[in-house]
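quick q for whoever's on today - can somebody do inverse folding on this one?? i tried earlier but teh output was garbage lol. tokens:
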């Protein structure tokens, strides 16, 4: 049986395969922008962004099933997701491929969640794990936006993009609503832990 101290040490690991995958995904962001705006290759940019979105589950799967979960990975994975999603959304809006009625609810949700997370952290709340609904919503949006880019306003790709994006928005906003109670609990627990530490 693994001792608690060994488990805690494992969580402090930095060099893991999931963390490397997250870093590679982040490194592909400039490549996506270059393909879209430098080469004006919408199909290539859509394939790259879609591939990065579709492989979102890979680092988490490896971390869980091969005992490579780490504190850094718990932060790095969602950061990579958000950077890819927000960069992709803004770039595709600039390109003119995504309808504003899809873009603005999607970006508003990301800003709301990011802002709330920063405020809670500043107030001393413990970190909140990303929910299944939140991951699902992010994944759907990371598939929908490349489809919008590919279709560029017409064709089967755009029709599919609408369906996936609407499902993704429902999941993403549902997840945001369900974060309220865990966020309050995290704030109470974080403050209690800080007060307890100060009292010892």
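ok took a stab at it. sequence:
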């Amino acid at each position: 049986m693994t001792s608690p101290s060994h488990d805690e040490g494992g969580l402090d690991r930095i060099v893991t395969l999931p963390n490397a995958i997250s870093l590679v995904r982040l490194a592909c962001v400039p490549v996506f922008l270059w393909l879209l705006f430098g080469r004006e290759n919408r199909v290539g940019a859509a394939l790259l962004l879609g591939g990065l979105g579709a492989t979102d589950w890979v680092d988490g799967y490896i971390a869980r099933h091969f005992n490579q979960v780490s504190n850094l990975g718990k932060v790095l994975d969602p950061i990579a997701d958000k950077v890819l999603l927000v960069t992709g959304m803004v770039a595709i809006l600039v390109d003119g491929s995504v309808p504003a009625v899809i873009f603005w609810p999607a970006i508003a949700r990301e800003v709301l969640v990011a802002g709330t997370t920063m405020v809670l952290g500043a107030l001393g709340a413990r970190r909140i794990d990303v929910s299944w609904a939140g991951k699902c919503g992010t994944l759907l949006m990371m598939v929908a936006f490349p489809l919008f880019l590919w279709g560029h306003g017409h064709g089967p790709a755009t029709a599919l993009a609408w369906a996936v994006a609407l499902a993704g928005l429902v999941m993403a906003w549902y997840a945001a609503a369900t974060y309220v109670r865990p966020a309050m609990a995290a704030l109470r627990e974080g403050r209690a832990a800080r007060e307890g530490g100060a009292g010892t």
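fwiw Confidence is low (pLDDT under 50) at residues 1-9. also Residues 4-195 form a domain with the Four Helix Bundle (Hemerythrin (Met), subunit A) fold (CATH 1.20.120). so keep that in mind when u check it
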